[in-house]
Amino acid sequence: MAHHAAQPQFDAPIPPGVRAQLLATEHWGLLAARTTAQNEVLARIAIFLTLVSAGLVSLALVGQATNFSDAFIAFSVGVLAFIVLVGVLTQVRVMNIGMEDLMYVVAMNRLRGAYVELDPGVEHAFMSSTHDDFLGVQQTYYFFSPKRGISQVFGSTMAFIILINSALLGLFVASVFALSTASLPMAVVVGAAVALIYFTSLFWLGNRRFRATIAGYRPLYPSQAEPQNDP
């Protein structure tokens, strides 16, 4: 007689304690992944800032050695081009980590919503939100204010990196312009304009990406009020 292996029974009722254990395991996994991502991007930023510092120091030394001649401008173009490239790559990673961090916050809000389903009496103990929608994200990011303030936006890591890259790109363009036209005042104007355009454009693109991400997400535990998709 053929013996058949026992098939697992997935339709059996699962005790609430086991469900809580599973949710807690996922919660710890998300916390670990979020910490790893934040540590990575902080290390990338530190490397980038060290490179910027070393590059500017080298420009100062070469400038003094060459008496800021055309050779210095050509050298500065090469150095600034490399730093700008590294800065753009760092900025891409910072923006990606920002979206990843948003996912971690939404996921942990969803888990807290599941905790409340298991035991509604624990909801009052959470400062972070139990809703995985935009209003819930706002509460988790900003405990003591209902909406994100302008200081949170301009004080963010993304704005910090965009500002540095804007200045570096402006210096790079100004150096190229000065090398090709030998007009320093015009080079300064063009470099400043490029820096301003870059900062404004990238800030707008980051905000647009955030809006698109929020608009395309359908929460499992929405708040009572409809969220306003306005960062």
Any overview of this molecule?
The chain has 231 residues and is an all-alpha fold. It has one domain. It is 74% helix and 0% strand. It has 6 helices and no strands. The chain has helices spanning 16-66, 70-118, 134-141, 150-154, 157-181, 184-215. Helix 1 (16-66) packs antiparallel against helix 2 (70-118), helix 2 runs antiparallel to helix 5 (157-181) and helix 5 packs antiparallel against helix 6 (184-215). The N and C termini lie far apart (67 Å). The relative contact order is 0.11.
Give the termini distance in whole angstroms: 67 Å
- Helicity, in percent? over 70%
Beta-strand content estimate: under 5%
Characterize the main sheet. none
Number of helices: 6
- Number of distinct beta strands: 0
**Average predicted local confidence, pLDDT:** 84
Helices and strands: which structural class? Answer: mainly alpha
Number of individual domains: 1
Topology pattern, helix = H, strand = E:
HHHHHH
Shape: elongated
Radius of gyration: 25 Å
Low-confidence stretches: 226-231
